[in-house]
Amino acid sequence: MGKTRILFAEGNDERMMEAAVHLHEEGFVEPVLFGDCNQIMAIAKQKGKQLEGIEIMDPSNISNEIKEQMVMEMIHLRKGKWDQSMCREKLEHANYFTTMALQIGLVDGLLGGSTTTTADTLRPALQLIKTNPTSSLVSSCFLMVKDEKVFLFSDCSLNINPSADELVDITLQTVESANQLGIVPKVGILSYSTLGSGKGESVDKMREVAKRLKRMMLDFEVEGEIQVDAALSKETAALKAPNSTIAGNINVLIFPSLDAGNIGYKLVARLGGYEAIGPIVQGLNKPVNDLSRGCTSEEVYKMARITAMQVSERKQQNSEESLDRLSTRV
């Protein structure tokens, strides 16, 4: 099996180049820079970056046969909503071309957003890659890291006011992300109430989420509804949730709304000194991740590694499903 190919959508960005060089030197991931080859090489020379051995995907060098394959696939995926003319027009835009490069298998994962908005990065993925068969929506999580402490926060960037059904899906997606990252998930369904101490519409929603999850055959522990202090502090947990097996040690935090999640992760990053890596996009058929426009080359590198982990997990799942189908036939 060859190296995992990760496409960097803004290949002319110096931060993308630096991350690509780092990954190429390591040899575990094959970075591919997207953009005008002459422009990328000129910028690399100006910035003193050595791109020897790193592939550049220049759309002007892609064969008409492959471009037509992209057009036909887009028409199929959009179920007649776009005609050939519209699809060709879309492919003139880097975010659509790179998305289709992933969709037809030219690369294994896609990373963008260093110079574009989240909407511009993810809209093509939502329209063309779409959600995987087990998901009803696309969500995100942030990996929060400080020294040896590691947490996952979700959802902090996509879903504004998710329903109980959607929060169950978001939780399961975030647990999958935890497993991909080698984190043993202990999940807290966050609220301003702990196990019935408070009342309100949001409390009812989060209590229902926890109740539904606990009814499932899960291979991870979940607690909720729970306040964040009881989730993180053993002392507080002993007072507020004395019978809980994971309160005080929770490492996957599920927020009730985008307001709470976005504010929460930024407070922890700014005041708590945690590094926020993400958003890691969850629930798509193929790995696509979004960067912040203020990202550093190190953050690009880390997100590329995470994207590669998602690819590996997806390949393993597909392999296991193929074996299952083969066993069934036998």
UniProtKB/TrEMBL annotation:
Residues 312-330 have a biased composition (Basic and acidic residues). The keyword Transcription regulation does not apply. Residues 311-330 are annotated as: Disordered. Pathway: Metabolic intermediate biosynthesis; acetyl-CoA biosynthesis; acetyl-CoA from acetate: step 2/2. GO terms for molecular function: phosphate acetyltransferase activity. It catalyses: acetyl-CoA + phosphate = acetyl phosphate + CoA. It is an enzyme of class 2 (transferase). InterPro entries: P_Ac_Bu_trans, P_AcTrfase, P_AcTrfase_dom1, P_AcTrfase_dom2, Phos_Acetyltrans/Butyryltrans, PTA_PTB. Pfam families: PTA_PTB. Keywords: Acyltransferase, Transferase. It comes from the Bacteria. Belongs to the phosphate acetyltransferase and butyryltransferase family. This is Phosphate acetyltransferase. It comes from Amedibacillus dolichus.
